[in-house]
Every structure is written in structure tokens, then in C-alpha cells.
Amino acid sequence: MTVVRCENVSKVYGNKNGTQALTGLSVNIKENAITGVIGRNGAGKTTFLKTVAGFLRPTQGTVKVFAENPFHHIKVAENTVFIDGTMMFPPTLTLKDILQEAGRFYKNWDVQLAEKLFSYFALPCDKYHHQLSKGMKSTFHMIIGICARSPLTIFDEPTEGMDSAVRKDFYRTLLKDYLAHPRTILLSSHHLNEIEDLLEEIFIIHQGENRLHLPVDEVKNYAIGLTGEKKVIERICKNREVLYKREISHQYIYVVVKNDLSNGERVQVEGDGVKISAVSTEDVFIYLTQQKEGGIDDVLERS
Amino acid sequence: METEILSGHIEVDEKMYSQYQLADMFNINPATAAKGLNLLADANIVYKKRGLGMFVSSEAKALIIDKRKSQTLGKLVKEIVKEANYLNVSEEELVEMVRVEMREKGDSR
């Protein structure tokens, strides 16, 4: 089943000459799966998530969430929680008050879990939201996001400012609560290697478009690295799309290509003295979202 | 999981961990865990009982040993031989190194 369906969605902020954040994006998000929304800075992740949550109206295209147009829709709002770093809370309520009051907004709210997490992460009950540090704010938002148990749970870069111990605890908490209460979770992050074990699917947004949307294990096998003599590698790369290329020395070169070699080809390539290596999902992401040919080495060479 | 079966922690016809238990144990997505279980099922190391889960098959140990011998060990041996060639280590020298290592392991047991 599909919970979120986007078809050819574009979003331009402001007038016609404004910033184009989404460009004809189409994607279907699977029900009760954890999907990682990955993209470079300014790729359109937040715009996509806010459109799904019903905070933004797309300039073009259709968005359906629970089969409804999410923009200002009560049914969608009721079943969605959106967590990011800029959440606002009434300034007169203490943190403990907020945890109590949240139950009135979210029908599946688990107040006991909220209180247990609250004391585990040593948040101060009688303080106010604006008095928290960046990391503590993120921790507090995360508790709300998990305990709301909304059928559609959206985390937009939830770990900003958290130290690594808290981040690990957050991922573990999210996974355990998801196992006990499956729901559709969208999780955006820059740190794919940190979250990939948690995910079922990876959705890569690049320049406002759907660059790749696949189950995690298929992204893991998406590409392979080849290291070997230049001449040999160049022969292999003929008629193949090269995702990344780096010269190690004058004779040796490392390239990343799509993993479409047959077993026979693999044996042959290895026989030619080429070393085949796996390419991490994080590197696949980086190569797929490279702005221009070449990488940082080319920039540094010129200067 | 294979190591658990080899070491006898899970016996033949005993129930394998479920995808949810595995997800919890290894901190991974349950869909990934399910794919892992399916790989074991495809290799006949576990079998499915509808509605009950996965169980360890009678030939599980033999299959795992076989697979590891041909794949894991075979690959390592290939690498060792390759490295030995680079370093101009002779066949006798290499075999002797393996022998010494095996004897030491045996003594410490």
C-alpha cells in the first residue's frame, strides 16, 4: 500500500522568478516502512516533507496523502506528526506541561513513554522550551515525534545538534518503537551511513527531482569500484556510465560504475588484474548527486 | 545466524529468530532481517512453516560448512596465494607458515 503519492510535483517559492525547490518530482512512499529522504544541502528535502505534511501547497502536480490532498486537510493533519528544528511551543508552558498537553493533539500519544524518555535524557521538567540548548531541543522534539505514534511520522533532520550518544539512542528508540507499533516514517538526513541500517528504502532527492528510490540492499549493490591500470579500466568503461573517476597515479585509476557486470565479466575483469570493491551507500549517494564532473580534487588542482 | 547454528546454539528443527527479533538484536530494519532469513531459506539452511516461522533444517550444519569452505575459505586462500606471489614467498614457505599457525592453535586448545 502507498501512503504518500506524488505526481510531477513542482514548487516555486514566491513569484515566477522565485526559487524552484521541487521540479516535477514523482514518488510513492510505502506504508509502514521507514524511508530515508536523502539529499545534498538545498536539494528540496524539506520542501518535499513539508508538502507531504500539508504545510505547503505545490505550485504544480498532485500530492495525495492517505488518498487526500494534504494541504490544510484535517484528516491528514490528525494522522501526521512533523518534527524539525524550528518547532514552536507556547512560551508559558513548561516542558512537562507540553508532554501532558500533547496527548490532546495526538490520539495515540504515549505519555508514559514520553515521561520515561524525558527522564532518561535528563531534560529539565520545569524549564521552558526556549531555555533549552540546540541539542536538547532536538532531543525534546524527537520524544514528541516518537511518542505521538502518528500513522505518518516525519522527521526532518531530527539529529541536528545531538551528540553521538543521544543520536544512537534516538535511532534505537525509533526502531524499537517502530517494531512494536509499525507506521510510515520519513526520515531525512545528511548522514546516510548513520541511518541506513534503520531504513527499508532510500529516496534520494537531487535538484528537486527523484534521483533514486530503491530498497536499501539494492542501493548497497548499486555500484562497484574498479581499481587497476588505466588502459584496462578505460576498455572496461567503454559503453558504461562512469559515476566517479579518480586517478591514483599515472598508471593506476579508480572508477565507480553501475553494478551490471555478469559473473563471467567479473572473472574476466579480475583476471586482467583489476580489483573490484564494494561502494558504500553513502558514496553512491555522493556520486549520484555530484554537481559537476570531477570532484574536490579538480577544484584544488586549479588553485 | 550461521555461526549460531554451527556452534549448536540453535538445534535442528528448532525455531530460528524471527525478523523482528533479529531487527532488535542487530539494530536493523525488519525488512532487511527478513531478506537475510530468505537468503537462508533459499540455501535450504532454514525451512518455513506457514504461520509459525523459520526452523533450522536437518542439513543446515553440513550446508553451512560446505558453503564456507568453498566460498569464504576458498576466497581467503586465493588472497593468500596472491599476496605470497607478490612477496616471492615459495609454496613450501607458505605451507610451513600455515602448518606453524595450525600447530599453535592446536596447542592452545
UniProtKB/TrEMBL annotation, chain A:
Residues 4-232 form the ABC transporter domain. It comes from the Bacteria. Coiled coil: none annotated. Gene3D superfamilies: P-loop containing nucleotide triphosphate hydrolases. SUPFAM superfamilies: P-loop containing nucleoside triphosphate hydrolases. PANTHER family: ABC TRANSPORTER ATP-BINDING PROTEIN ALBC-RELATED. This is ABC-2 type transport system ATP-binding protein.
UniProtKB/TrEMBL annotation, chain B:
The keyword Manganese does not apply. PROSITE patterns: HTH_GNTR. GO terms for molecular function: DNA binding; DNA-binding transcription factor activity. Residues 1-59 form the HTH gntR-type domain. The keyword Transcription regulation applies. This is DNA-binding transcriptional regulator YhcF (GntR family). Keywords: DNA-binding, Transcription, Transcription regulation. It comes from Texcoconibacillus texcoconensis.
